[in-house]
Design brief:
The chain has 457 residues and is of the alpha+beta class. The chain is built from 15 helices and 15 strands. It comes from Caldicellulosiruptor bescii (strain ATCC BAA-1888 / DSM 6725 / KCTC 15123 / Z-1320).
């Protein structure tokens, strides 16, 4: 660890490079998973299926995309360990008819383009380390309260509070009427029983220790907090949960309004991430999957939700696969898609998990696809599983069966329509959401630090 004000050695790399033991050690290592050789690469090409997507998304009129970004900032020069966390969430709404109209012209009118979309911003602020809320005694208590308070907000005008969305997902995505979880007080061993029929979203007291308990404690986000150490992992866990809740929040708001009840089924909802919940709140994914299928069964109409992964192992593999294909004079077929089965994933991309038989068994509610668009752009797409439960007998018959995903042509056609050259392999709604949600290191983070230091004493 460096001293305060100490800078790293700028020429240490030279000593390492010349060190024979260092060179020897590097030669002993290898990349665990690489794309296959020339012959097998040609075989993989055959795994891509060209899909007829012409006008498959004609019934989609509006695209709703969500993105989140977070950072942590110190708020006191004398106590650098005192930090707060900030998470920004942006939703962009793109009107496809307006977008199509503006795309007809050779030169785009900026004012006309601005009419094609709207955005909304939601911000979470909470303690991370050595900071407490007024009336609370620990960081854990404070961040639990901050999350609850944040979830009680209506994310956008006229929508339901986020905590109502969580409550509905738990109630509708579950066969049980009572949810139980451990008391968030680490000194208490009591199980909290939350009756989803009788109890509402208001806080209640733990019968064992009297600790105030919130419905949001079910997510176990506070377990990512270390009282004695700074912990930013809670921000990443919170961000993924809120992004998912924002999608279903809008759907629920529409369904609760008679004049808007059919609107979600003429929309597409895009998450700027895979359809998965990682870490402490991972169990939420099972409820989301069941709730998603219940929504479609009730209306007997497809509900278009999908995720996009801009980075990660699958995207790296896809890019390398494209390069290897070109090296042997071949190309991935355009407008073609491949379902990433576990057999393929564990052979070419990553190791099989030790605890579970299937990939994403405890975190995922969506199946991954590799899509090579009409414009030769590469997308890692995640669609909700075609079944509402991940039973063993469903995997080969349904989950790994590309024909069981009825919304796939619609999603692929939509991606073709809304791609943008703003960034590599990007689509417009997600690019817009990210633009407004992201917090740059300079100058945004520096300005936020200065502002927070003025207000937090």
């Amino acid at each position: 660890m460096p001293y305060k004000g100490e800078f790293s050695n700028k020429i240490m790399h030279e000593r390492l490079i010349k060190n024979p033991e260092f060179q020897k050690r590097l030669k002993e290592l290898r990349v665990a998973y690489d794309t296959p050789n020339r012959d097998i690469t040609s075989e993989i090409r055959q795994m891509f299926r060209i899909i007829d997507t012409e006008d498959a998304s004609k019934n989609v009129k509006i695209v709703f995309a969500v993105d989140g970004s977070y950072t942590d900032i110190p708020i006191n020069n004398n106590i650098p360990s005192a930090r707060i966390g900030i998470a920004n969430f942006c939703a962009s709404v793109v009107k496809l008819d307006e977008l199509k109209k503006s795309a007809q012209y050779e030169f785009l009118d900026p004012h006309e383009f601005n009419d094609t979309y709207t955005t909304g911003l939601l911000t979470f602020v909470g303690p991370l380390a050595n900071i407490i809320e007024e009336g609370k005694t620990t960081t854990s208590q404070s961040i639990r309260y901050a999350i609850y308070k944040f979830m009680c907000n209506k994310p956008f005008d006229e929508t339901l509070p986020l905590i109502n969305t969580l409550y509905t997902i738990l109630k509708e995505g579950n066969d049980k009427t009572v949810e139980s979880f451990n008391c968030p007080n680490p000194e208490c061993n009591e199980h909290i029983e939350w009756d989803l029929e009788k109890d509402n979203i208001n806080p209640k007291k733990c019968p064992g220790c009297g600790e105030e308990v919130y419905l949001t404690d079910w997510l176990r986000l506070h377990e990512a907090v270390e009282e004695d150490f700074e912990s930013t992992s809670i921000l990443s866990r919170l961000t993924q949960v809120v992004e998912h809740l924002l999608v279903f929040n809008l759907i629920q708001t529409c369904l609760s309004n008679q004049t808007l009840v059919s609107l979600p089924f003429s929309m597409a909802f895009i998450l700027d991430r895979p359809l998965a919940i990682y870490g402490e709140p991972a169990k939420l994914h099972r409820y989301i999957l069941k709730y998603y299928h219940k929504l479609m069964q009730n209306k007997n109409t497809p509900l278009i939700i999908f995720g996009l992964a801009k980075s990660g192992r699958l995207k790296d593999h896809f890019e390398l696969l494209e390069r290897r294909m070109k090296e042997i004079g071949e190309e991935i077929p355009k407008n073609a898609v491949m379902l990433v089965s576990d057999a393929y994933r564990f052979k070419y991309i990553q190791q099989r998990p030790k605890r579970n038989e299937y990939f994403g068994q405890e975190i995922s509610w969506g199946q991954d696809f590799l899509f090579y668009s009409k414009e030769a752009k590469k997308f890692v797409v995640s669609l909700p599983y075609s079944v509402d439960e991940k039973k063993k007998e469903y995997y080969e018959k349904m989950i790994f069966n590309i024909d069981s995903y009825s919304t796939l042509p619609t999603v692929l056609d939509l991606i073709n329509k809304i791609t943008t050259d703003l960034y590599e392999d990007a689509i417009l709604p997600v690019a817009l959401a990210h633009r407004y949600a992201s917090i740059s290191l300079k100058p945004s983070k520096q300005i936020l630090e200065m502002f927070a230091r003025e207000l937090i004493k």
